[in-house]
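Structure first, sequence second, as always.
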């Protein structure tokens, strides 16, 4: 049954939010000190919960801690065996293969083309439809330091601080220095960023940022950028094969990555792609519902790229850090886990507990803000309970209308307003209920500043790679990441392809990997990559996902 509006029990609590609003419009809780942040993270952030991770028992990052859900896939056997695939039958023979048809993959393809690879010598292979990805679902915006009062150096410091100084410095440097160029490139492709009447960009704050540098297209920034990127790639004529996830990377007898085996989801056939250079752009692990959390993520985000890269010898990093976005929908039930963009807080909406009290500075870095919400609900008993037992805190969205005038939400958060309105909730008039939701893989496959994974012939861009964000990404740096490192990976792949000589194709690496698994005593009941999340049985509905706090 579709829920309509709030039940009486929740409406009574909304009256408390309304009563404290005038006072809260005048003052907000202060930012936490570094010590307070550290303490709240240690006590309440899911990353610090004991028993939720284990050290990897094999492979290039052996000993590194990763969530059990991810370790289960990294320590799993291949879906195919070499005997099942005839490597003498080449279905696609290209210079650059790009695995993943989201933002990073499309950007990599474009820049491989700009770097001189003919369109017909590039192939984008994607698990679902071209564009199906977290990139297209992104809401709040993209950071780039392009205002006189800002600079890439200040952006750099914000990122390092947000990431607890665990980031790989040369990657952060590349990210911030390329930022302004990426925005100019987007504009040249026709991306329509929000502008002020004088033609300058509308730029807003996000959590943990010291300058306003968030460029947006209302609250569907990801869709607007992806529209322009995909149009550009279509106009150029870059070939795309859809519904064909990669199930394994191919190597050659010289130890280079030499393409991939795709699985045609429509015909259940394997396709052999030989490529002089391969770019991984498969996104992250958000659909693994780490610790039972709901997720903002696309169905395709099942860690496939991590699994494939690990088997050919790529290192992983920062895999112990998972990003929970503070504001996932907690009510109505049908929307649980969906993203409420950080822009809502950036525009003035304040988190408020069941007594109508503001309990945290609204724009702490994401990990800190999430930990504060969890403490309020589960440590202090100040959360709002929904009829099905989910807990959350209010996000006082009507404050936006008070601060910026009536009609602001419908105009600037058009998609969000519509999403709630379909369930009888007008977020311009009533607060919305939120709780942290699984949002992003902070770490990933280690790359250098050129997008190279360290394995000959293999490059990576976007959420699959790690190092840029350290242990905690700041808002708006994921869209920038996929553009900066999608571009760098595409350029590097093109340059590599121009000189690479391939040897005899081989799947011997998966034989060796299976042997390592067996020697480590791991039995073969688990297979990976997962390709699609499992929602049958008790996980059929979001409410049966049990958050383990
Ligand atoms: O970078 C993000 O994850 C982002 C901009 C999300 C959002 O809150 O809109």
């Amino acid at each position: 049954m579709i829920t309509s509006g709030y039940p009486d029990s929740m409406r009574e609590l909304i009256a408390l939010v309304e009563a404290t609003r005038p006072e809260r419009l005048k003052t907000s809780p202060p930012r936490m000190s570094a010590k307070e942040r550290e303490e709240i993270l240690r006590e309440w952030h899911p990353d610090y919960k004991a028993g939720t991770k284990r050290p990897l028992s094999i492979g290039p990052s052996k000993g590194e801690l990763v969530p059990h859900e991810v370790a289960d896939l990294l320590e799993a056997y291949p879906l195919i065996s070499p005997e099942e695939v005839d490597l003498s039958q080449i279905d696609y023979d290209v210079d650059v293969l790009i695995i993943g048809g989201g933002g990073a993959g499309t950007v990599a393809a474009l820049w491989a083309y700009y770097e001189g690879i003919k369109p017909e010598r590039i192939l984008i292979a994607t698990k679902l439809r071209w564009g199906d990805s977290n990139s297209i679902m992104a809401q709040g915006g993209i950071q780039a330091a392009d205002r006189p009062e800002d600079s890439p150096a200040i952006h750099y410091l914000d990122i390092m601080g947000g990431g607890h100084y665990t980031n790989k410095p040369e990657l952060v440097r590349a990210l911030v220095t390329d930022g302004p160029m990426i925005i100019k490139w987007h504009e040249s492709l026709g991306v329509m960023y929000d502008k002020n009447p004088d033609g300058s960009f509308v730029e807003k704050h996000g959590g943990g940022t010291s300058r306003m540098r968030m460029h947006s297209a209302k609250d569907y920034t990801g869709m607007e950028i992806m529209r322009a990127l995909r149009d550009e790639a279509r106009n150029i004529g870059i070939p795309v094969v859809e519904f064909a996830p990669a199930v394994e990377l191919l190597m050659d007898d010289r130890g280079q990555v030499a393409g991939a085996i795709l699985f045609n989801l429509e015909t259940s056939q394997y396709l052999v792609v030989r490529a002089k250079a391969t770019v991984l752009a498969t996104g992250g692990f958000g659909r693994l519902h780490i610790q039972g959390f709901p997720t903002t993520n696309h169905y395709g985000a099942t860690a496939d790229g991590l699994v494939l890269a690990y088997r050919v010898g790529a290192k992983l990093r920062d895999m112990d850090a998972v990003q929970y976005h503070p504001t996932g929908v907690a009510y109505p039930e049908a929307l649980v886990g969906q993203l409420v963009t950080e822009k809502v807080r950036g525009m003035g909406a304040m988190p408020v507990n069941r007594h109508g009290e503001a309990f945290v500075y609204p724009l702490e870095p994401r990990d800190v803000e999430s930990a504060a919400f969890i403490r309020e609900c589960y440590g202090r008993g100040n959360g709002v309970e929904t009829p099905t037992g989910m807990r959350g805190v209010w996000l006082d969205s009507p404050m936006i209308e008070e601060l910026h005038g009536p009609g602001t939400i419908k105009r600037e958060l058009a998609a969000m307003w519509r999403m709630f309105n379909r369930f009888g909730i007008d977020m311009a008039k009533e607060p919305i209920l939120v709780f942290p939701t699984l949002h992003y893989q902070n770490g990933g496959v280690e790359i250098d500043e050129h997008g190279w994974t360290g394995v000959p012939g293999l490059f990576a861009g976007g959420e699959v790679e790690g190092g840029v964000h350290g242990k905690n990404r700041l808002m708006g740096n994921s869209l920038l990441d996929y553009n900066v490192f999608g571009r760098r990976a595409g350029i590097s792949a093109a340059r590599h392809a121009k000189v690479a000589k391939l040897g005899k194709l081989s799947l011997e690496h998966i034989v060796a990997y299976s042997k390592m698994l067996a020697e480590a005593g791991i039995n073969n009941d688990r297979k990976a990559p997962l390709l699609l999340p499992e929602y049958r049985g008790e996980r059929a509905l979001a409410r049966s996902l049990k958050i383990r706090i």
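Margin note: The chain is about 35% helix and 20% strand.
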